[in-house]
Amino acid sequence: MSWLSRRIEILHARLAERDDPRPESIVLPDPAPETARAVIVSFYMDNIRRGVVAAQRRLLARFLPDGVAVRQIRTAMKHGPALDAFLAANRYRTVIVLDIDCVPIAEGALERLIDGAEAGRLIGTASCASHLATERHPFIGPFGMALSMDLYDRLGRPSCVATARGDVAEELTFAAERIGAPIEWLWPVSSADHVWTMPNGIAYGHRTTYEGGLWHAFEIRHRSHQAAFIAECERFLAEAGPR
Q: With contact defined as beta carbons under 8 Å apart, do 44 and 79 qualify?
């Protein structure tokens, strides 16, 4: 994307968000690392409307287990370096990584991630990188992923930066496979379209629902996707009812 195109995209996002709620107005529990079970972290850039951030925050508030902190971090860093920086400074025992357009839509969705990570598994949404030579290698995508810091240490603390053989955070799956650490896959169960295909033949695309109750919009950088995401989150909240 050119510099001018990105500036235009940011301007449109800012104009669109004039009536958006401020995410910080949605107050969430904030347990200390010493007492929390886990932390959820989501990164986003300045081309993302604050309404998107608020929409994710509302669904997290609806389905958030006790003892879980939330960090929605605005950054200029790409996803891989942002993850590396967060994990290097992290003091929570377990980390859940969600894209800003990935949300829980069912009871127990976040608990399943935490339980799996606490049991020593690398757990999360199944993905594969269609743009790489290793596209037939499935990995746990960092748009819906959890692991304990103990497992991260056992894996050798690999960088989450994309490499010639793997997409963002794919090295975590390679490392888990190398040492025989258990992996729990959450597979796509439905989607609005079919854009990508897993090695096992499962196709998925935009607005994908995964086993366990995670939902991912994909490609939230597009303005039209942001408005649709906010509307979908409102529908999910209405269907879920009060906490």
A: no
Measured on CA atoms in the order 70, 39, 239, 215, is the torsion positive or negative?
A: positive
Structure tokens at 190: 């439905």
**Facing residues of 185 across strands?**
124
Token pair of 64 as six digits = 């958030």
Residue among 157, 179, 185, 32 at smallest CA distance from 86: 157
The model's pTM is 0.91
SS3 2: coil
User: Do residues 101 and 52 make contact, with C-beta atoms less than 8 angstroms apart?
Assistant: yes
- The neighbour count for residue 5, using CB atoms within 10 Å, is 9
Tell me how far apart the alpha carbons of residues 179 and 192 are, in angstroms, rounded to a whole number: 36
Query: Chain-wide mean pLDDT for the chain?
Result: 92
pLDDT digits (tens, 9 = 90+) for 25-83: 899 999 999 999 999 999 999 999 999 999 999 999 999 999 999 999 999 999 999 99
Q: How far is CA 70 from CA 1, 42, 156, 195, in A?
A: 30, 8, 25, 30
Tens of pLDDT along 125-141? 999 987 666 568 899 99
Judge residue 71's burial from the number of C-beta atoms within 10 Å of its C-beta, 0-12 exposed, 13-18 middle, 19 or more buried.
middle
Total tally of structural domains belonging to the chain: 1
For residue 227, the domain's CATH number is: 3.90.550
Residue 3 buriedness (CB in 10 A; 0-12 / 13-18 / 19+): exposed
Which residue range is the domain that position 189 belongs to? 3-240
